[in-house]
Write a structure and sequence with these properties.
single chain, mainly alpha, Helix Hairpins, 2 helices, 74% helix, 0% strand, Tim10-like, disulfide bond, membrane, translocation
Length: 88
């Protein structure tokens, strides 16, 4: 008979639940970061009232802002991955 906690979940189920919750929390953090960055790029680049198209330069500014965000994100992931590999 397997040992169960007060919650009624055995150890394997608790680990699975913990892993699931960690994954969902990481997804929420990523979504929050993307939302914050989207707001930042919008506020920086879009100066005219929203219409059917962007004003001159706004589209390029948004594309550049997103590219810098992606470059930075990839750089950070690679650094973290590199440190994890060096520590392993």
């Amino acid at each position: 008979m397997s040992a169960q906690s007060k919650s009624g979940l055995n150890e394997a189920d608790q680990k699975e639940l913990h892993s699931f919750l960690e994954t969902k929390q990481a997804e929420a953090r990523i979504q929050s970061t993307i939302h914050d960055h989207t707001d930042r790029c919008w506020d920086k680049c879009v100066k005219s009232a929203p219409g059917t198209s962007f004003a001159r330069g706004e589209e390029a500014c948004l594309a550049n802002c997103v590219d810098r965000f992606l470059d930075t994100s990839i750089f950070i992931v690679n650094k973290v991955y590199g440190k994890a590999q060096a520590g392993a």
